[in-house]
Amino acid sequence: MHTPTPDFNTSLFSACILEAAAGGNHLMEALVASTRQALQDHAAMSRDSVAQAAFRESLRLLNKHEASLCSQYPAALVAAFNGGSPGGAKIGAGSGSSSISFDELELMDDSQVQESVELARAQQAAQLATEAPLAPFNALICSAQGLKTVQPDRNPLRPEVFVRTLHTLLKQSGAPAADRMRWLQYMGAALGHELADLYVSMTIRLREAGVVAAGYVVTQGTGAGGSLGQAAAQAATARAFAAGAAQAPVRAQEALYVPATAGSSAAGSATASQGTAEGSAAAAAASSREQVILTVNQLRRLLSGELDEARSRVASEASGAGGTNTKAGFEASLRVDSQHTVPAAFEALQEMKQVDHVMRRLQAQTKASPLPAVPAGTETSLAGLRQQLRANARGLGQQLGLEVVNLMVENIAGDKRLLAPVQQVVRELEPALLRLALIDPRFFSDKMHPARRLLEQMTQRSLAWQDASAPAFQAFMEPLTQAVQALANMPIESVEPFDFALKTLTHAWSDQHREKRHRETAVKSLLQAEQRNILADKISREIRAREDGQMAPHDILLFLLGPWAQVMAQARLADRAGMADPGGYGAVINDLIWSGQPELARNSIPRLTRIIPGLLSTLREGLASIDYPQNELSRFFNELMELHQQALRPAGASGLTQLSTPVSTRAELEAKFAERPQEEPWLAPAEAKDSGFMDTGMLDESLEAALDHNGQKPDFAPTQPGFGDTGPTSGWRQTAAPTATPEDLIPAGSWVEFVVGNRATRTQLTWASPHGTLFMFTNAEGATHSMTRRSMDKLLSEGGLRIISDHAVVDEALDAVAEAAMRNSLDIAL
Fold it and tell me: Which is the most buried residue in 60, 258, 413, 638, by most CB within 10 A?
């Protein structure tokens, strides 16, 4: 078997893409035929005249749209395979998932939620049907793209792309939503079987062509799709199973609300979350009464505020029916006169500088107004608190709020990106968050809510450290632990305690003010550098277009297009008078080009001797304005003066050497520049120092030093013991997607590791320039590192940069809650 060349593999990959897209017509015909048969069968079997009419109407519309669906699917697939979608939405790595984000739910209506669920069901059906043939096909299609390891999201023919493209096409048909969802329900299962056959045939074809399968790398996910998603998945699956959701779909009205009982136990939930099948049917039934089943529709109603009104009605009815005493008793258990808590704490903040003093005072105030005792036998355990709060929860809104908080905390505390002490302090904050959920059941949906901001600050800031033993990490954790302990033992009747804790911690981490000033200086320097480089690029193009430019010696022309264009750009940016040629730096170009040609300058020695002093003075002044390195300046001046010396000698004198050959034609000039790599942004030494600039050469040396003798990637230190062979968040981005930009791959705020000197350093992408040419990273100590777009591309492609977290921990935890709700919804007819 011959070994395919990279070009041969690329052509095979393209052929697979074209073949799959061309088969779209036949694929849609098969899907329509299968759906038609299903609709006919259901219409014949249904005894409900209304249901029969609905099935027949869907069948009529399907027949009507069949021709257009079949003809449009191939083109839609081509757009999707090339990274887009027929609707213009981008389909990137991982975006083919049917999951919806937590933040999207609040903006959706019931029909959109139902359609998302149907899409998820279609995705699930296609994934299950293709699971076996997809694994070997992924390995081969990734290899055909030149990838060393399997990256499933880089397979443009993955099932979710087909399903999402199908869904988009159905939406564009204009058919009513109910009929589209019915079609998608039957098409999803049929699509899976068709794709399984496609993957088998393409796998055979690629193997026969000699493509060697890429290797699989075992990684441990750390985001919502990894361990934290699994935590939510286990808990949600167990609860759905206990409630009978794993059986036939039930009506939503039957599963929307199950009253909590005083005897409910979180320990039972914990046992169920381990997936054990032990226990009797009676125990499972009891478990189902303990908690609501969180579905996408319920979560949407909670986030949109619909359940707030329902809770008010329940409270009103309870009061009118003689429930005043119970309600008042529960509210009294949560109420504390605000004058004994937060306002006094704010005074303490003004009076004291040290956070531990503030926290001690706050804790003392908490003891003065203690929480009501938890039921006997549970002491102050979290399980006991959950039991009490669930027993006293009024209405579906409060119950769902408690459930979302519980899942969110499980997800955050299970996030492997967080060090163990941070995971623990998140768990310790849960009591305060649960109490808050009773008075504000959807606080977690407001990104500006102090409680959510507190969670985000404590988790995102903690990502700066790789080791819990670092002194700076201990300084970070001490005030955080005190603040969380105070909140956990404080009655929560408003948002103020969280707001106070957030402000106190911000004050405690006061070094950020100094770091902020340092970052501001670095950003100012980088902004100035980008503006100057953009203008210098424009000026250099103008110089290249000059007629006399093609006759200039090559070294002089390079000087004019590089350093001197920077000088002219700096002068124009600094000019406030609106001068046409500030500093007169543009005027010297003629003299420099002319005097740099000895054969030409020799014809007018008087002019040459007259202009040399002024020319050299202007050059020195201009280069000083950009702090041009002295060694480079000396090198250029030596070459220029040698050219001038040649011009002053008589023609034919001995010892003349041609230092730089002029280009004779415009075509030759452009050809020479076409061969040169694109120039990177240039930073003055002061700008580089202010921003910690790392040029390509420095990064190359660091990466080279970190590579072992086999050329393997640097061995980054694990975040936790036993985590060395896993890949945080998304693992290694070994090869950037062709259309990807650094902003796409590494969003602002992401934590990454890359090699500096002989070790890996963890930093956060804190700033990207407006034009995407410069990027700045900041580490836990406030030190900055900056690099160009090309340097970042190089690090990404060569494995010199590892992404620790490219999404906020809290955002991913809440998205995992939405995913758990989606999984629960798949077996429930909303």
Answer: 413
Whole-number Å distance between alpha carbons of 304 and 327: 25
Task: Render pLDDT for 130-144 as a digit per residue (tens, 0 to 9).
Answer: 999 999 999 999 999
Tell which of 201, 217, 233 closes a domain: 217
pLDDT over 70 at 93, yes or no: no
- What pLDDT, in 10s, does the model give residues 309-328? 555 554 444 444 444 444 34
Domain count, the chain: 4
Q: Does the residue 245 lie in any domain?
A: no
CB 307 within 8 A of CB 441: yes
322 DSSP 8-state letter: I
- 751 has which bridge partners? 764, 805
> To 5 degrees, how large is the angle CA 683–CA 685–CA 687?
60
For residue range 608-621, list pLDDT tens digits in order. 999 999 999 999 99
> How far apart (Å, rounded) are the C-alpha atoms in residues 559 and 529?
18
Residues in the chain: 830
At residue 175, does pLDDT exceed 90? yes
Sequence-distant (≥ 6) Cβ neighbours of residue 773 within 8 angstroms: 530, 533, 534, 681, 788, 789
Residue 821 included in any domain:
no
Band of the pLDDT at 545, cuts 50, 70, 90? confident
- Tell me what the mean pLDDT of segment 446-451 comes to: 92
Closest listed residue to residue 339, CA positions, set 371, 360, 363, 365: 365
**Residue at which a domain ends, from 165, 195, 217:** 217
662 lies in the same domain as 532: yes
Dihedrals phi, psi of 784, to nearest 5 degrees: -110, 150
Q: Give residue 593's pLDDT.
A: 92
Pairing between β-strand 784-788 and β-strand 774-778 as defined by DSSP bridges: antiparallel
**655 and 739 within one domain:** no
- The whole-number average pLDDT for the span 465-491 is 89
Q: Does residue 745 carry a pLDDT above 80? A: no
DSSP helix/strand/coil, 806: coil
Mean of the pLDDT values across residues 378-395?
A: 72
φ, ψ at 762 (rounded to 5°): -100, 125
Residues spanned by the domain of 44: 6-217
* Structural domain includes residue 830: no
* Number of Cα atoms under 13 Å in the Cβ half of residue 62: 28
> Which secondary-structure segment (H or E) carries 828?
strand 828-829
Q: Phi/psi zone of residue 139: left (φ > 0), alpha (ψ -120 to 50 degrees), beta?
A: alpha
Ranges 341-345, 625-629, 640-644, 683-687: which has the least confidence: 341-345
For residue 149, the cross-strand partners are 215
Q: Per DSSP, what are the bridge partners of residue 765?
A: 777
Residue 203: pLDDT band (50, 70, 90) is: very high
Q: For residue 183, how many other CB atoms are within 10 A of its CB?
A: 29
In the chain, the percentage of residues whose pLDDT exceeds 70 is 67
Distance CA 623, CA 262 (A): 80
260 occurs within a structural domain: no
**Residue 432 and residue 450 in one domain:** yes
16 shares its domain with 107: yes
Residues 597 and 622 in one domain: yes
Position 491 scores a pLDDT of: 87
Edge-to-edge strand order for the sheet containing 751-756?
A: 784-788, 774-778, 759-768, 751-756, 801-805
Q: Is pTM, for the whole model, over 0.70? A: no
Q: Rounded to an integer, what distance in angstroms lies between the CA atom of residue 329 and that of residue 619?
A: 84
Task: Examine the pLDDT at 599 and tell me if it is beyond 80.
Answer: yes
| Pair 114, 195 in one domain | yes
Residue carrying the six token digits 């050299």: 616
Q: At residue 9, does pLDDT exceed 60? A: yes
The candidate with the shortest Cα–Cα distance to 236, out of 810, 815, 828, 822, is 822
| Same structural domain, 46 and 169 | yes
Cβ proximity of 85 and 79 under 8 Å: yes
Contact at 8 Å (CB) between 62 and 85? no
Q: How many CA atoms lie within 13 A of 276 on its CB side?
A: 12
